[in-house]
Specification:
Helix 6 crosses helix 7. By secondary structure, the protein is α+β, with helices and mostly antiparallel strands. Among the domains are: 172 residues, Probable tRNA modification gtpase trme, domain 1 (Gyrase A, domain 2); 108 residues, Elongation Factor Tu (Ef-tu), domain 3 (Beta Barrel). The chain is globular and about 60 Å long. The protein is built from eleven helices and 21 strands. The strands form five sheets. A six-stranded mixed beta sheet has the order 10-11-12-9-3-13, sandwiched between helices. Strands 15-19-18-17-20-21 form a six-stranded antiparallel beta barrel.
Length: 457
């Protein structure tokens, strides 16, 4: 059993989160995930990278193996850096229906759902997973929990919204072998747990929540628990999974399966409309922090905001019958014929991609290189159709499963039909860019297996 000083961890985490002005490494010590002691044993790269306020392992072994495990067996990844919020109070449901694009009148205890929140202009402010813990208690995890806390303070609500990010770990166990591995780690059966449901359990003697959800597009689970037991729970799952071929997943390949599943990620594929405001994201578009790269020219960060309709996250029926922040703007979007842009997939031309790498070994200027499997940064690339700007491509990534370079793209609906030929302007410097041909595809890139009937397995 690992020893873990949760009070020191919480104190250092809050310093990292609340005081970015302090000198890093001196008055603002680095914060490693609560499972770092267990992860270090198998982290052959010895590389750790910061995600938000927490350092996570970058790569455990061969990245192709890590990227392929979700299709072959399973991966075990650490998502503990994302925000976690607990909401309590008799107005909790009414409050959530005020800020979220959702009807929660039939959302019982034990259920989960994707929960999208918009600002007054109908653009996505933040989104994540919402779970109902009790009649008047909810648990929310996402990249931007501050938005909920801020909104809870704006009205006369009988509700408390508390950020508990440093107190909970979140591990993703995703892939066709995830159920067998999790049952082995827990010593119990989970065949009755349906998609978008959660249950209580125990791993390594610690209380945990098991959520049947995930954004890999495959059968998968999330394991949530106290950071006090983070290393013990991680190691127990790892020991249960390694004999079955499971791979620990580092940050290098972390969002690859999101793209294969056709799911947009805040900061990478769109910018949250809460950015820079009260209760907003700390993503930056210039200077320190995350910067936006690529060939897509935008007038302001508002050009990178998206409505939930554009991201395939919204039901017109919910918008029609529910009142929430941004509802009027979304109704106007529907009345105008729907979103002007659509989120689609792009399959990049293999020969054009190979020419980029071939320039390393040929005479002439070396083309801007494509990090493998992707560049871990916000990268927005101009997309043209019939010679005119049609939108932007994001999250360019190599998929070992598809053996292709792929990306998401938010493009004009006139150019979004499957099979449309487009051109992506690749590069960063205006003096060194390449045109890469691509064709559109309806998302996801592969079948959605999240709802697999595990009772029959």
């Amino acid at each position: 059993m690992y020893k873990f000083d949760i009070d020191s961890f919480r104190r250092n985490f809050l310093t990292q989160h609340d005081r970015p002005d302090l000198p890093f490494g001196q008055e603002r010590p680095p914060v490693f995930t609560s499972a770092a002691a267990a992860q270090d044993k198998v982290n052959a790269s010895r590389i750790w990278r910061r995600w938000g306020d927490t350092f996570i392992a970058w790569q455990y072994g061969e990245w192709v193996d890590e990227a392929s495990a979700v299709h072959r067996t399973a991966f075990l990844g650490d998502w503990s850096a994302i925000s976690k919020v607990i909401l309590r109070g008799k107005d909790a449901t009414r409050f959530l229906m005020h800020i979220g694009v959702a009807d929660l009148t039939r959302f019982p205890v034990g259920r989960l759902r994707h929960f999208v929140m918009t600002d007054a202009s109908g653009k996505v402010a933040t989104e994540g997973v919402l779970g109902r813990i009790a009649e008047d208690e909810y648990y929310y995890t996402a990249g931007g929990g501050e938005w909920i806390v801020y909104q809870a303070a704006q009205g006369d609500w009988d509700v408390s919204a508390q950020l508990v990010t440093p107190d909970w770990f979140i591990y993703e166990l995703q892939g066709p072998g995830s159920l067998d591995i999790l049952e082995r780690a827990m010593g119990t059966r989970l065949r009755e747990l349906e998609f978008n449901h959660w249950c209580a359990g125990r791993i390594a003697g610690a209380d945990v929540r098991i959520l049947r959800t995930g954004i890999s597009g495959e059968l998968g689970y999330e394991i949530h628990g106290s950071t006090l037991h983070g290393a013990d729970v991680w190691e127990t799952i790892l020991e249960a999974g390694l004999p079955a071929g499971m791979e620990p997943l580092g940050m290098r390949c972390q969002v690859l399966s999101h793209i294969e599943a056709g799911i947009a990620t805040a900061g990478f594929d769109y910018m949250p409309a809460s950015i820079g405001g009260p209760g907003g994201s700390n993503i930056s578009v210039s200077g320190g922090g995350q910067r936006i790269l690529g060939t897509y020219r935008f007038n302001g960060v508002e050009d990178l905001f998206r409505s939930p309709f554009e991201l395939n996250w919204c039901s017109p029926k919910v918008v029609a019958r529910c009142d929430f922040i941004g509802a009027e703007a979304l109704r106007a979007e529907l009345d105008a014929g729907g979103p002007a842009r659509r989120l689609v997939g792009l399959v990049w031309d293999t020969r054009d991609v190979m020419d980029v790498y071939a320039s390393l070994f040929e005479d002439g200027e070396i083309a801007p290189q494509m990090d493998m499997p992707r560049r871990y940064a916000a990268e927005y690339l101009a997309v043209h159709a019939d010679g005119a700007l049609a939108g932007c491509a994001t999250s360019r990534v190599y998929s070992p499963k598809l053996r292709r370079m792929i990306s998401l793209a938010a493009i004009d609906r006139e150019a979004a039909a499957p099979g449309t030929d487009v051109e992506v302007l690749w590069g960063t410097s205006p003096d060194n860019q390449r045109i890469v041909r691509a064709s559109t595809i309806e998302l996801p890139f592969k079948p959605d297996n999240r709802r697999t009937d595990v009772k029959a397995l």
